């Protein structure tokens, strides 16, 4: 059974940093592309960063230069380092495979205050 467990969110002031983690189980993690999604209040879930199974990365323009996605296949974990956070980064963050969506986890809340 696929399980994605996100953690690392919290309340941070604008300009601050957070590091999110997502541990996967029930899948062969190393062959899966992975991504981080953000769902702001009242908005649809959007893909903000992704990393292929070979380590290539891509970012939404809204986070380019501030967020870094990485993975550790041995730990079956994908990370999102978020720097220079802005109020508009506020939302619930989820991880998943953009190429083959699995059952969603509970997400982790990120709140950026002014």
Features:
114 residues, mainly beta, 10 strands, four-stranded antiparallel β-sheet
Number of strands: 10
Give the amount of beta strand, in percent. Answer: over 45%
List segments where confidence is low: pLDDT < 50 over at least 5 consecutive residues.
none
Strand order of the largest sheet: 2-10-9-4-5-6
What is the helical fraction, as a range of percent? under 10%
Q: Which class do the helix and strand fractions yield? A: mainly beta
Radius of gyration: 13 Å
Sum up the overall morphology in one term: globular
Query: Number of helical runs?
Result: 0
Question: N-to-C terminal Cα separation, in Å?
Answer: 40 Å
- Average pLDDT metric: 97
Please provide a written account of the structure:
- The radius of gyration is 13 Å and the shape is globular.
- Helix content is 0%, strand content 50%.
- The mean pLDDT is 97.
- Strand 5 and strand 6 (57-59) form a beta hairpin.
- It has no helices and ten strands.
- The chain has 114 residues and is mainly beta.
- It has a six-stranded mixed beta sheet with strand order 2-10-9-4-5-6, with no helix packed on it. It has a four-stranded antiparallel beta sheet with strand order 1-3-8-7, with no helix packed on it.
List the helices and strands and how they pair.
Elements: E1 3-7, E2 10-13, E3 18-25, E4 34-39, E5 45-51, E6 57-59, E7 67-72, E8 77-82, E9 91-96, E10 108-113
In short:
This protein has 114 residues and is mainly β. The protein contains no helices and ten strands.
């Amino acid at each position: 059974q696929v399980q994605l467990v996100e953690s690392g969110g919290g309340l941070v002031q604008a300009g601050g940093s957070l590091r999110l983690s997502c541990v996967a189980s029930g899948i062969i993690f190393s062959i899966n592309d992975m991504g981080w999604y953000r769902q702001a209040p009242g908005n649809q879930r959007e893909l903000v960063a992704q990393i292929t199974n070979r380590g290539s990365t891509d970012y939404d323009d809204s986070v380019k230069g501030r967020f870094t996605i990485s993975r550790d296949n041995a730990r079956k974990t994908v990370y999102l380092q978020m720097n220079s956070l802005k109020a508009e980064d506020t939302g619930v963050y989820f991880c998943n495979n953009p190429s083959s969506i699995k059952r969603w986890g509970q997400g982790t809340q990120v709140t950026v205050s002014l």
